[in-house]
Amino acid sequence: MAQLSKEILEFVFRYIDTRPELLNANWVVSRGEKGIKDLAYEIGLMKSKYPQFDFYIDKQDNALYVDGFLITHIGNVYHVQIYFPSSYPYYPPLPIVLDKEIVQKCKSESIPHNRGIQRNGVALCVIKPDDTVGQPWTPDLSSTTIVNTVAKWLQAYELWQKTGKWCLREV
């Protein structure tokens, strides 16, 4: 894990002070002090790279997730959530696109590289934990890796809409 700057760490601790419920996330609680440190790292990294994303707790299962919007090169805006599994960081976060058009297309036709409807959106297949073709998921990666791959998936989706060809292999 890379080191976060002093300014980012100060921001993270203020952020957690205003959002103490984040400490109840299932993967944070199960890992104790290490979980708290990893949470601080995730918040710092996400807020420094993608400040439009905020952290929340799903009250049904205490899953930590980030919620925000991504804008593609042609200017389309997509609502995205990234859920951290209870086995994080040993298993990758689950990216969900909540865009109504993508949800409808997933229900009515076959969109490449998705895992169907989950948590009211389309669960994307952007990285497999045991991937042998592209870069496999490892515990030293972060949720920002997933945001990067979601952005690539959205670009591929828009191209697929125009050409009918999927230009991106599983990352």
Q: And the CATH topology?
A: Ubiquitin Conjugating Enzyme
Q: So how many helices? A: 5
- Helix and strand string, N-terminal first? HHHEEEEHEEH
- Total separate domains: 1
Task: Characterize the overall form.
Answer: globular
Could you say what the CATH architecture is?
A: Roll
Structural class: alpha+beta
Provide the helix percentage. Answer: 25-40%
Strand order of the largest sheet: 1-2-3-4-6-5
Mean pLDDT: 86
Rg for CA atoms? 16 Å
Distance between the termini: 21 Å
Largest sheet: 6 strands, antiparallel
CATH class: Alpha Beta
Count of β-strands: 6
Name the features:
171 residues, alpha+beta, Ubiquitin Conjugating Enzyme, six-stranded antiparallel sheet, 5 helices, globular
Description:
Helix content is 38%, strand content 20%. The relative contact order is 0.13. Helix 1 crosses helix 3. It has a six-stranded antiparallel β-sheet, with helices on one face. The protein has one domain: Ubiquitin Conjugating Enzyme. The mean pLDDT is 86. With 171 residues, the protein is an alpha+beta fold. The longest helix has 21 residues. It contains five helices and six strands, in the order αααββββαββα.
Q: Which helices and strands occur, and which strands form pairs?
A:
Layout: H1 6-18, H2 26-29, H3 32-49, E1 54-58, E2 63-71, E3 77-83, E4 94-97, H4 100-108, E5 114-118, E6 121-124, H5 143-163
Antiparallel strand pairs: 1-2, 2-3, 3-4, 4-6, 5-6
